[in-house]
Amino acid sequence: MELELRVVKLHCSVGNFAASDPRLEPLWATAERLGVPIVTHAGHRSGGATEPDELDEVAPVLRAHPDLRFVLAHAGHPNTAYALELMERFDNLRVDVTPVWLSPIEVTAKDVERFAGRILFGSDAPNCPQETGAQVARFTAMDVSPAALDALLGGTAASLIT
Description:
8 helices; 10% strand; TIM Barrel; alpha/beta
C-alpha cells in the first residue's frame, strides 16, 4: 500500500517507546530510503520535557541511518545544549525551535548560523499561547545572516518535503 506520506510525527511518550526501540527499525529504514522526514518528540517527562538519557536514545538511530531526515521536536527542551552537541556529531539531525508552552527554545544567533539549514521554526499555533509573530520577531532580531534566517523561517522545512 502506498501512503504517500510527506512527514511522519512520533511522540515517544504517547506510544510509550524510545526512539531506539527495535520495533521502529522498519520505519526508520523506510523513511530513510524514501526521504520522508520524521519529527520525533523524544521526551517522556511531564510537560514534554526531554531528559539527556532520552536524547541518548536518538544517537543509535542517527548512526544506523545516516540519510534519515530526523527532526528532534522542541530541540530536546530543556536539554537543547545537549541536542546541539548531538547535531555536531550527526549531520542528519535537525531540530525545531517550537516553544514548549511559555518556554522558548534557547538557541543563540551563533547556533542559528552554525546549524543553518538544520534548524526549523515552529509555532504550535494555535495551541501555544506565544503569538507566532512574537516568535518570528525574536529570530529576526538576532544578528544572523539573511540566508540563515531564511532557512530557519521556512527554507529548511521546504527542503525536507521537496
